[in-house]
Amino acid sequence: MILSRYERMIARRYLLPGKGEAFILLVAGFSLGAVMLGVAALVIVMSVMNGFRAELFDKIVGLNGHAVVQGIGGRLPDWRDIVAQAKATPGVTSAVPMIEQPLMSSYNGRVEGVLIRGMRTEDIRGNASLTGNVVMGRLASLTPGSGRIAIGSRLAESLGAQIGSEVSLISPQGQATPFGTVPRIVSYTVAAIFEIGVYDYDKAYVVMPIEDAQTLLLMGDAAGMVEVQTVDADKVGPILAPLVEKIGNRAVVSDWRTMNAQLFEALAVERVAMFVVLCIIILVAAFNIASSLIMLVRSKTRDIAILRTMGATRSAMMRIFITVGSTIGVLGIVAGLLLGAVFLFFRQGVVNFVQLVTGQNLWDPSIRYLTELPSKPDPAEIVAIVLIALLLTFLATVYPAWKAANTDPVQVLRYE
């Protein structure tokens, strides 16, 4: 929409009404602020939701793989054959045997439920989710028969354990006696403490060499499962289809979507719901723009009539008032994008400040899984937000501009 010189001049004049029209300027300011807050809220919420999903996906898949091959009854006696078949499957990048079993841990009279994870030493050192998040100690000291383990940071806090502490692991699979089965209790030295960033993992996981886990659980040479990584997590089903046929009834293959279906489906539904609800804020801002333009048209009726008698066309009036309303919308959108970017950059500081002022724990990791507020802006979504805001703003200017264009100068100036 190209404006002539006089149209641009009038549009600039109407964007800053005179002294007697301060109320119109106030309403226009509220409209700009509403657009700014609506756009900022959409950008912030969608970025945080994207970051939450991405962080959860990276941490869950990084530790649990894209899929797992679980043995019937929790045992895989022929795990070496399954590992070889998995690695030979096109699209599979790694296959890691492991043992995973819930047990109890005890230290200094404190008892916590834990999840034992036994892995080969080369797999422990090659797992980026573990090696990249060690806060104390060294994973390299975890060797078969050493009696050393690595535990999560939250578990260490709950037990009061540190590097060098002797933590007892209690297994119900013990020796049978005339009085029943005696639980098996074995003490291990804490050699490393890690913090993955997912509360449930940091609170429960105990990592040890697979040989030690086999000894603790009396499993002999068997493994519990094989963790599989593929080239594309979204295509894990088709990639592993040949492996499922080869395995047959020996084991069950479960991918990350099956194991975490409820969590990721809930996140997807919440993203859509939040997007729709926050779009209503922009819609309300668009109504504010429409109301401010309607008041501007009514206050400028005499000016419009004079312009029409001087030769201004209906289309010129339409362009002037559409430009005024669209300018308010564009300024609000730009301000909203800047506000959203600033908030996302200082998001954790804002959360900490609000927690300090209110005394409330707004980001409890035991409820929200992650230890920090994540963020991952999506350029495509931001473009969509801008386009939606522009469209609603433009539609809000059409009716007031049409009323201005249809002003009858004869009726207005009859008694002047």
Task: Explain the layout of strands and helices.
Layout: H1 5-15, H2 22-64, E1 67-71, H3 79-87, E2 92-107, E3 110-119, H4 121-126, H5 128-131, E4 134-137, E5 148-152, H6 153-159, E6 166-177, E7 180-194, H7 199-204, E8 205-209, H8 210-217, E9 225-230, H9 236-247, E10 251-255, H10 256-259, H11 261-299, H12 301-309, H13 314-345, H14 347-358, H15 365-368, H16 379-405, H17 409-413
Parallel strand pairs: 3-8, 5-7
Antiparallel strand pairs: 1-9, 1-10, 2-3, 2-6, 2-9, 4-7, 5-8, 6-7
Helix pairs in contact: 1-13, 2-11, 2-13, 2-16, 11-13, 11-16, 13-16
Task: Write structural notes for this entry.
The protein is of the alpha+beta class and 416 residues long. The protein folds into 2 domains: 5-58 and 263-413, no CATH class; 77-223, no CATH class. The protein contains 17 helices and 10 strands. A 6-stranded mixed β-barrel has the order 2-3-8-5-7-6. A hairpin with a 2-residue loop joins β2 (92-107) and β3. α2 crosses α13 (314-345), α11 (261-299) packs parallel to α16 and α13 (314-345) runs antiparallel to α16. The chain is elongated. The two termini are 34 Å apart. The model has no long low-confidence stretch (mean pLDDT 82).
